[in-house]
Amino acid sequence: MQMAIRLTVPRQRIGVCVVIFDEQQRVLLLRHVFHPYYPWGLPGGWLGRDEDPAAGALREVREETGLTAVLGSVLQITHDSSPPHLTVAFLAELQPGSMTLSSEIIEARWFAMDDLPGLYPFMISAVETAVAVQTTHSPSQTPHSAQATINTALAEEKIDTHEKK
Fold this sequence. Notes:
The chain is an alpha+beta fold. It has one domain (11-157): Nucleoside Triphosphate Pyrophosphohydrolase, CATH 3.90.79.10. It has 4 helices and 7 strands, in the order αββββαβββαα. A 4-stranded mixed sheet has the order 4-1-6-5, with helices on both faces. The protein is globular, with a radius of gyration of 16 Å.
């Protein structure tokens, strides 16, 4: 019975993205090699098998920029059907250091809110939510922990984070 359930329950990939502001309230965007429609985007990517979303978000920031971040709140969890996946957006603060871009990234730049390039709609929403959160809390002092929010969302949606390979 358990095997039949596992074979018939739909699975979704899970991605993460991270909104990071500098001291002038500009948002960090990366120009990605593999994104032809919207080349600029937030740091992020797909979770690995059995990877925790918060850990994956920190890993993606480190891999793409060479920098360490302190994760704040979950900003949103969005669903897209093409291909079926969820994206968990986080707010974070960068730790001091020198940026070293991965081979996936062509360029990194800080953008003022009124000068953002074209972004995927879920990223625009994440940035707008981050602006609202920034006005009331610092990213590392948000009212709910990122992992507690993710655990609640995953439990409510009965989402299987284990992807077969």
